[in-house]
Amino acid sequence: MISYPRWKIALVAIVLAIGIFLALPNLFGEESALQLARDRAAVQASDRTDIQTLLESKSVKPTGAFLDQGRLTLRFATKQDQLKARDIIAEARPNEFTIALSQASRVPDWMRGLGLSPLKLGLDLRGGVYLVYQVDVAGAVKQLLDHREQDFRASLRSARVPYQDVQVDYPANRVRVLFRDQDSRDKGRVAILADNRGLNLRDVTVDGAAALELVLTPQEIKDRQDYAVQQNIVILRNRLNSPELAVSEPQVAREGVDRIAIQLPGLQNSAEVKKILGKTATLEFRMVDESDNPLEAAGTGHVPLGSKLYYTRDKQPVLLKRDVVVTGDQLTDASFQPNSQDGPAVSVSLDTRGAAKMLKNTEENIGHLMAVVFIDRSREKNAQGVDVDRTTEEVINRATIRGVFSNNFQITGVNPIEGRELALLLRAGGLAAPLTPVEERAIGPSLGQDNIDKGRNAMVYGMLAAFIFMAIYYKLFGVIADVVLLANVVLLLALLSLVGAALTLPGIAAVVLTVGMAVDANILIYERIREELRNGVSPRAAISAGFDRAFSAIADSNVTALIAGLVLWLFGAGAVRGFAVVLVLGIATSMFTSLMGSRALVQVIYGGKRKVERLSI
Amino acid sequence: MEFFHKVTRFPFMSTRKVWYGLSAILIVSSFALVAVRGLNLGIDFTGGVVVETNFPKPPNIDQLRSALAKAGVTQAQVQAFGSSRDILVRLPPDPNAKGEQIGARILDVFKTADAGVKLQRTEVVGPQVGQELFVKGAWALVATLVLIAVYVLMRFTLKLALGAILAVLHDPICVVGFFAVTQITFDLTAISAILAVIGYSLNDTVIVFDRVRERARLARKLQVAQVIDESINQTLSRTLMTKLVTLLVVVFLLVFGGETLHGFSAALVIGIIAGTYSSIYISAALALDFGLRTDDLLEHKLTKPEEIDGLP
Q: What is the residue-wise DSSP string for B183-239?
């Protein structure tokens, strides 16, 4: 008997069965679908039933409906149903959901319930847009220093501690508060620490004057940078989920230290999305400095202490107090009101902190002017090709505070297009740091389909050629190798579906290459068996020797390929990673199938016979 | 069916000077070509803009070029991509050009030539990203080579390992030389292909060396050169058969995989051929010239298969 333990054969059978089961979802194909997402909240199971009944009452029956990551996907048998359903939902529940047209797999719901899903296709196969943004982490640190500066001023003022100036030094990452004397410095420290616990303030002397100094530690800087990237990711997700942008399955992920990669499958026109994503527009509410003359300040360039010079849209100078009443990040909601009493307006809601500040401010300042500053940061290259940040700060509205208000009010003075965009941006939150696009790849859907066809053809023809060759050259053993290769592809498909790795065109190339390498292993074994047979060894012994002796060569050669694959996995991004993932997983499955699967099959075929006269090899 | 029924008796070792010469020519000319012609680096590495468009019928490329120049899009490379209906436009990184507009702008210009033109693909890579990807790619190559060298040193005696490592170095150099000759775009997928070649080209060397060790134990009286010759001849059929089938599959990739995979599959084809050549003619010969003796092989007994399981 050829000695090959039964449990190994059983193991091969079990692994293969699991593999087939996991690969099963890939057989169902896709159909037209709608994806519903809700701004800032998940779509609930109750929404699902409501919408299903709604659609059924209008006799548009979805062929499937499932919730995944807070999004509801509805599948339809035809494109017409899909479009009809979109109109029905948009009409019955206006402005409630983002409705995106997409494709969804026909996998039955019970299978999906088990966590089975088909292979994801990469953007180069589906079409879509891939964007990489660079987060200005240095800008985020600057912002932190600016906040500190403002906080210090506020604390000192409310504690009525006299101070000369608060200076920010960006390259040195420090804030200094200059005092007249030691005594006010001591009082100042107490006042600042009362509002900002745990700050490490140091006593220093600047040009003979007593001062307090705050220097950010490397850890604080790193935390701030991480925070900026994370926060930006959250905000980009929010923006992508706004009903104004109907995007299906957006993926936002951190890449490296200071980059964010965004995948927008199926998206064709990226211009609008990019316009919204890169925006850093936000608002600030400041009191108007009514005691000084803005024209004089603009003319002489001498701005009174505690004030800042701004301009309105029509280039009129305005002096505003340095202290911000409320900033854009304290807004919780914003919506555009095209037809309010005073023309187009954005109605906003503030969080509790913002509301409290606004309440206090309006109480104290009835009859005074408050201004709304619109801030838009954009990044441009100057003539030398160096990035420069351009901040546009405009006073869009000045109004007398007529009554006390806190968390809900309207901002007028915006034009309709701006108002809509501002509402979206305010609602999604302000970016923690400016973004610069550094990479963009957009693939049209027809090219995607073309890539799928080409990849499939290359794979099918290549494999077919290898299969035919093996069967002719190695006869029955060649057929065994073919069966094993097929099993290899199934297992690979199963693994890829399981880990949720997206298949790209280079990924398909890796499948083809893996098949080639799996053939390799089989040939090594069969050539060894032939050699043993030539040396006059009995068929059974030849099989054993073939498998055993080829093992070390197969292991060695696969380890080196594995090393290359793993390095590529670590270093690669996008399509290259798609190649590496498939290569690494493919090496694993091909090792398993060639060494164990092929052996088990040989055992099943030849093991039962009492005497093997000759091998079909 | 069997192509190699009889074991061949090619005198690989005595003719090795010839093969060294051939390899030296290949390597020197690869370096010279890269130095003289340079590589046609893709936008992955240079940064820049690539716009792919599809026309209903083949357009006149010169006309498109002049139309672009007239519209103020200078420095544009316009070329057919795969078929004559697919037109690729490549632009160098331009600090003032915003990626979001360039695709639409080029499409507008092309629409004056043929209203049915479609935008297939836009890629914009910032110059900084390009530089980073290039550095990362170079590091990946170095890391792979070092790791593989470490592995080979662990598995074989020093002299064999040196032969294997030099033979492995030989292959990617040939592939890069091929890119310099053909001026096929050298991009990230080309790097993937080179890494795959490095990982894969050791296969045959390993098989030959395994056999050399096995033979050395069985036939102690033979000269090393003779052992190596016999080992290479005995493993020749499997070396050629495995590469032939892999090559077959990769050729299908080259023919049917489309323009996107063209450079990748071409690199694999060249790499596989170079790898097969170097493992037959170069790696063992180098080990011999490093002074490999039968004793070297006997000290290190054949590693038993079980021990391999614990390896990385």
A: ---B-HHHHHHHHHHHHHHHHHHHHHHHHHHHHHHH-TTS-HHHHHHHHHHHHHHHH
